[in-house]
Write a structure and sequence with these properties.
By secondary structure, the protein is of the alpha/beta class. About 45% of the residues lie in helices and about 15% in strands. It contains 20 helices and 17 strands. Strands 3, 4, 5, 6, 7, 8, 9, 10 and 11 form a nine-stranded mixed sheet that branches. Strands 13-14-15-16-17 form a five-stranded antiparallel sheet, with helices on one face. Helix 3 crosses helix 6 and helix 12 crosses helix 20. The longest helix is centred in the first third of the chain and has 35 residues. The radius of gyration is 27 Å and the shape is globular.
């Protein structure tokens, strides 16, 4: 009788545990197949992934079972004889199965986009459910998928409930069950973390070695990281001296001797070029899409032509793998800090920005976005830092040719920009505009009859993006302000940042074209530079004299010598030089990688290089947290 009671009490928990392990293992198999399409996994990698994966699945299960076991322990056993209980049991079983199947499919979709388990991007997406659900609905046959998930869930619930050995496993007392749960929780909290699995050199193996649900909650709890708490530090005076030394240029004079103060007077001889500036940050435009960087598919004829007649920067690297990281670097000229982008952080108002420099020169500065600027806090950030903000809400219905969940077609955004520029020109003021596009984003839809490819693919979206830029330049040429305008075209980040390593350098390489034939000569600039260097380099090309608090550098004013760029995920901070990459990670020793033909391999530690990397990231993190990035000083 006691055995039957035990079985009755915990059968659902046993069933749920078995289902959880089965669905997670099947999901890992699917993700392994997806990963193998782009990267080979050794037998050791595969074995490690599945063994570690089971451990993380069991750890996650121990959390999932907490409310279930508490409920099953507390309910009176007599309830189990009620028919209502039996019906509700089946309902809960099907709901649990459906949730786990949906979770597995969501992981596949996320992996298809980011080649990663759930991370902080997934956490962010939970906040913006309208855009994310809309994106999925427009990219995939959602109704069909949901129906198949429901059918699969029903089959799993019926089949697993019929397995006789699950009944035998239910022979356990409440005391033993709760004791086992407590022990499991102690082991999990003492022995595991989101990064404990990252033991292989192959990033894909480390991703597969985790659990999607565990990774999601780990990312939720680690969305912002205190640099000094998690990363290796250097003596403050030494770190400050390194940063100030690398920011020292012939045209700059520090206004203070304080090590933490990098305010400089930038002085140029001769007249300033008070030209209009149009900065276009293009969604997900990897350098390898352009013909100028070796692509043979003719996706970017307009950009390639602009590169031939303008200034092409060939060794530029994005600071991160999300739009807000690119916006942060382009507007503030700072290295990335661990955790969230400054665009989404609190107390990010009144910062020294590119717009603040232009505004001090009498310009009208604006941020123009084709989507809803509430996404990723863009509207608030730019409005609070010197920009007049306009997003898709400023467009009338007859001004929209095409739209999807992420925004209007690029051509509609450029149409809004042309009207805005005309208004600024009529007021007799020069203008600076930062335009952020959206068309090169899944679901990759755009107006018909623009290019010779159908909508729905990344390649087609790239080609449409190129067409829209070419059309924009053509339309702009008909306006009075055109000849006195500098067009700056750059990507916000690459289309994918996934690779065999945590920070695959080639997945951060983006194009930069500065085009103004009447004022700037065509040339190729091969110096290594960061996205954070674009603002001061642009101001240098305009021959502006101004007070600077930028951490980026004007590459034309910087003497040739050691060059660097910053690349990062939300935890891995990379310091890139021509032949080496230093990676700083939470709670780990810095790693130095040697770069050979775009491939990285572990190298002997370089104390001076590591010290430089730590200095920059320590300094920039402190600068923000201590309010030293503010406009007023």
């Amino acid at each position: 009788m006691k055995q039957n009671s035990s079985v009755s009490r915990y059968r659902f928990a046993i069933w749920l545990s078995f289902l959880f392990i089965v669905t997670n293992t099947l999901s890992r198999i699917v993700l392994t197949v997806m990963a193998s399409e782009k990267n080979s996994l050794s037998f050791i990698d595969l074995g490690y992934s599945f063994i570690s994966g089971i451990i993380y699945d069991l750890a996650t299960l121990s959390y999932v079972l907490i409310p279930v076991l508490l409920w099953l322990t507390l309910i009176p056993l007599s309830w189990r004889k009620n028919n209502i209980w039996k019906v509700s049991g089946w309902i809960f079983s099907i709901m649990a199965a459906y949730s786990l199947v949906i979770l597995a499919v969501s992981e596949w979709v996320f992996w298809d986009e980011f080649e990663s388990r759930f991370n902080f991007i997934a956490v962010d997406y939970l906040v913006y459910t309208n855009e994310v659900i809309g994106n999925i609905r427009q990219s995939y046959p959602l109704l069909t998928w949901l129906s198949l998930c429901a059918l699969t869930s029903l089959v799993l619930a019926v089949l697993i409930n019929r397995l006789p050995f699950l009944i035998r496993w239910g022979h356990i007392s409440r005391k033993h069950m709760l004791s086992g749960l407590i022990i499991a929780q102690l082991l999990v909290n003492l022995g595991l973390s989101g990064q404990a699995k990252d033991l292989r050199e192959n990033r894909y193996a480390n991703e597969l070695a985790g659990s999607g649900l565990y990774s999601l909650f780990y990312a939720f709890n680690n969305n912002e990281l205190n640099y000094r708490h998690f990363y290796q530090t250097e003596d403050d005076s030494s770190a400050n001296a390194i940063v100030r030394e690398q920011l020292s240029t012939p045209d700059a004079h520090f206004t203070s001797t304080s090590g933490t103060d990098i305010w400089r007077d930038i002085k140029h001889s001769g007249a300033e070029r008070r030209l209009n500036v149009v900065l276009i940050s293009v969604e997900s435009l990897s350098a390898d899409y352009l013909g100028k960087f070796g692509n043979s598919k003719s996706l970017t004829p307009n950009l390639d032509q602009l590169a031939d007649t303008g200034m092409l920067f060939t060794r530029l690297y994005a600071t991160g793998n999300r739009t807000v990281r690119g916006l942060e670097a382009l507007s503030l000229a700072v290295p990335p800090t661990p955790g969230q982008s400054i665009v989404r952080r609190p107390d990010n108002e009144s910062l020294f920005s590119l717009a603040s420099v232009f505004n001090s020169k009498g310009y009208s500065s604006s941020f123009l976005y084709g989507g809803y600027g509430t996404f990723d806090n863009m509207n608030y950030f730019f409005a609070s830092n010197g920009y007049n903000v306009k997003d898709r809400l400023k467009l009338k219905s007859d001004q929209i040719t095409h739209e999807n969940v992420w925004g209007v077609a690029d051509e509609d955004l450029y149409g809004m920009a042309l009207r805005d520029f005309d208004q600024s020109s009529q007021k007799g003021k020069p203008f600076f505009a930062h335009i952020m596009t959206t068309s090169n984003h899944r679901p990759y839809t755009f107006p018909e009859n623009r290019i010779d490819m159908p909508t729905g693919s990344r390649a087609a979206a790239v080609k449409y993006t190129d067409w829209a830029i070419g059309n924009f330049i053509k339309q702009a040429s008909k306006h009075s302000w055109y000849n006195d305008t500098v067009f700056v075209i750059v990507a916000d980040h690459c289309s994918s940042s996934a690779g065999k390593t945590d920070l695959p350098v080639e997945r951060y390489h983006i194009p930069l074209i500065v085009w103004s034939p009447a004022h700037l000569p065509a040339q190729k600039v091969d110096r290594l530079m960061s996205q954070a260097d674009i603002a001061p380099t642009l101001l240098g090309l305009l021959n502006f004299s101004y007070k600077s608090n930028f951490m980026g550098a004007d590459v034309f004013a910087t003497p040739k010598g050691p060059e660097r760029a910053f690349i990062a995920t939300y935890q891995g901070l990379g310091y890139l030089t021509p032949d080496r990459l230093v990676i700083l990670r939470p709670r780990k020793e810095p790693e130095v990688q040697m770069l050979e033909n775009a491939f990285a391999k572990t190298a002997k530690s370089n104390a001076e290089l590591v010290k430089e990397a730590i200095a920059w990231y320590q300094f920039s993190s402190d600068a923000y947290s201590q309010g030293r990035m503010k406009l007023v000083h």
